[in-house]
Amino acid sequence: MIINVLLAILLVLIVLIVVLLFNTIRFKPDKRTSQPTGQVESAYKSEAEKDAAMARFQSLLRVKTVSYNDQSLIDYSAFDAFENTLAEQYPLIHANCEKTKHGTTGLLFRWKGKSDKAPVVLMSHYDVVPVNQELWTKPAFDAILEDDVIWARGTLDTKGTLFGVCEAVEAHIKEGTLPDVDIYLSFSGDEEISGDSAPSIVSYLKKEGVKPALVLDEGGAIVEEVFPGLDKPCALIGVAEKGYLDVSLKLKGHGGHASAPPAKTLVSRLAAALLRIDKHPFKSHFTPAVTEMFTTLGRYSSFTYRLIFANLWCFAPVLKLLFKKQGGEMNALIRTTIAPTKMEGSKAFNVMPPAASIGLNLRLLGTDTVESAIAHLKTVSGEAELEIEVMEKRNASPYSRTDTEAWQNVSDTIGEVWKDVIVSPYLMLAASDSRHFCEISENVLRFSAMTLSKEERGLIHGNDERITVKTILETVSFYKSLIRKFS
Ligand SMILES: [Zn+2]
């Protein structure tokens, strides 16, 4: 009897191993995602042309279009100056495209195409985050070009892509290109502070009945060392972005002198509530963007990871547990995250506060909404008197499919510019202006056309932001090549 049971278990185990191995062996690189061409011509024909282009880039970087959350600090004359610089540097765009202004700083150019088929929108933003000049090696707004590297705030985020779009359109107009469809250039000057420019552009386009076939904004890039077991560069295209929620958890009481505290103080009750919230993380889910990312990149991973990603039906629970333990980016891909960021009580050591609060920043996975997230916090906190004040909120964006012409065009263009990179969808953890465009388009893709090393990714919003000339030239090539697909 026991032997029969053992034999049965052994048989099941053997079958399981065979199935797992069979799936792993079949889980090979997919032709659709392998792009080994890299055959596009360079962006400029001569050194002189290239130097002139770099001078144009420098002129954009030198304008101090800094966004501050405290809007009284914003120097709007810099934004006017940027608009003028753009007009000086790109006369053909200004002569051939209809320009309209929206919201506080939004600029929209319409390059009219041959047909009235669904248009393309190329997005970027020209505001930048403030700098802490003492921590920079070089002046942040001089755009110094040294040893084929340009140093300036905004090189990566994201005057670089704005420059790429403008260079490409200007060059195409010069060559006499007439696109098949309208191509819109949508540039906001308040992305970093979630301003009204991009929403205003969207409501204008909506009123005009415009339904873009492709909206391309900043987002993923060509990166390495981001996926377990993968040592090849991959181009990550954001197909969705997480939602955002800032809440303040508050408990109110009587306060009083600290010499005779009650058995349970306000602050300790609030701390206990936070610990209970911590112990009950949001449920994990493999949303379509993440499942697609795993099944695309997993094929190129080392054997162990291929075994895991080829058999998500079996290993998903293990993976979820592992990511939860690790925290960080992989965990953020599969669940709504909670980051406690602020705490406030009394201003004095010897005074008990009449109110205490903890600030939380949540990033919502599409399976959770603002309402359901607040309900979750309330339930698991176990604190009946907890008040939850919402400071900022938005749900996750919809998901853009990858079996579309829009995806194929972007993906093919990547293959033409960069040799041997794996193109994969991914879920963006940060926010971009593109989320507003989901209202008028099903094909909103988020890809910053540049190769970014781990070190370079760390420079975004940090010190010593800089870009290599080689990288920025590839950005221009990407947009030139992409526009050709619609011409
Ligand atoms: Zn940005």
Q: CATH topology of the largest domain, which one?
A: Aminopeptidase
Number of domains: 2
How many extended strands?
Answer: 18
What structural class do you assign from the helix and strand content?
A: alpha+beta
Q: What share of the residues does DSSP label as strand, in percent?
A: 15-25%
Number of helices: 15
The average pLDDT value, as a whole number, equals 94
Small-molecule components bound: zinc ion
Radius of gyration: 26 Å
Question: What kind of sheet is the major sheet?
Answer: 9 strands, mixed
Shape summary = globular
Low-confidence stretches: none
Corresponding CATH superfamily of the largest domain: Zn peptidases
What CATH architecture label of the largest domain applies?
3-Layer(aba) Sandwich
Helix content: 25-40%
Distance between the termini: 74 Å
Kindly provide the name of the CATH class of the largest domain.
Answer: Alpha Beta
Pfam families: M20_dimer (PF07687), Peptidase_M20 (PF01546)
Protein name: M20/M25/M40 family metallo-hydrolase
Transmembrane segments: 6-25
InterPro entries: Bact_exopeptidase_dim_dom, Pept_M20A, Peptidase_M20, Peptidase_M20_dimer
